[in-house]
Amino acid sequence: MLQTCKDLAVEAAWRLARPAGPPLNYSWSPDSDWAASARIIWPTRYQWAPTRKWVEPLRRALRRLIPLESHDLPQPYPGIVLFDLVVAGTSTTIAIDCSDKPTINTTCVDCVPVYFKMQYSSRGYPWPHVVPGGFGPADSSVYQFLPRLRALASRAAPIFDVYGRFGLQFASDLRREAIGRLADAPEIRYAGGAGIVRYSRFLREVAMSKVCINLPGNGDLCFRLMDYFAVGACIIGPKLENTLNAPLVDRVHIVYTKDDLSDLVPLCRQYVEDDRAREAIRHNARQVFDRFLSSDQLAAYYLHECRRWLEPVEREVAAAR
User: Fold this and answer.
1) What's this model's pTM, rounded to 2 decimal places?
2) 271, 273, 277, 280: CA torsion to nearest 10
3) Buried b vs exposed e over 7-28: b needs ≥16 C-beta within 10 Å?
4) Which of 94, 146, 202, 315 is 20 to 30 A from 139 (CA-CA)?
5) Distance CA 1, CA 193 (A)
6) Which one, of 317, 271, 41, lies nearest residue 161 by Cα?
7) What count of other Cβ atoms lies within 10 Å of the Cβ of residue 215?
8) Where are the alpha helices (DSSP H) in 81-234?
9) Could you state, in order of their start, the residue ranges of all structural domains in the chain?
10) Phi, psi angles (nearest 5°) of residue 312
11) What is the fold, at CATH topology level, of the domain defined by 138-293?
């Protein structure tokens, strides 16, 4: 009965929320002359069909910046999307590695001038042209919901102290440990556990929670973390070993626990009780998403990095002509 009442409260608050989305200002602005001479040829199929979840929002955002057409391009590398960037008539193949592990495909990396790696290791790589590839939310529908979600988060009283839903397919021991610690803390109103709900409900529950728990999945970065940033959550979890295309600072954008989660409950209690510190984290999380992680910002970043790495090659080609 208690869970039913909470569900009704979430639904009621959701209906009362009103959209209030921020305007988009690009953090990376491609040179207008360069962009005017550029176009993208995108593959019509992927080596692994589920890759669409990672790259389709990026493709649509890129199309809003420069012309994009689709062709049947070879896709020989597992977990990697290859597309062609054509600038002033010269075509170059670019790689996007979406695989869950931080390892690099050594064959592919030697064949391209720019290699975007989504699970980019914080230790870096010996190839300088391997650059962080960012990440994205679980579903592009979050952009439709986002203004309302943020209004809900800012105007409605939180229903949950601490929130976190996790499947047990990946990192099962760590996830069970976290769920057990939170469930055994009577002073914390914890909601979630080892189960999933429909995406829209998950997003509303994130917006109605004071603190949201992040845990690694098959990869260190996950869709759930991006959803948290999009809504603007106070995120607590183990330190990330992989990095995004923007630096995350502990106690500024996210709160890191010890690897063994021994301080998980005390940190949750601290940020549940400290409204000012919690709201600062939530504000900064939204800023990270709006400035660096949304699909439009990510597309602008990809073009910026392509131009940065290709510009010396373009000068050499122009000189040879």
Assistant:
1) 0.91
2) 80
3) eeebeebbeebeeeeeeeeebb
4) 94
5) 17
6) 271
7) 21
8) 106-109, 142-155, 172-183, 199-207, 223-231
9) 32-134+295-320, 138-293
10) -60, -40
11) Rossmann fold (3.40.50)
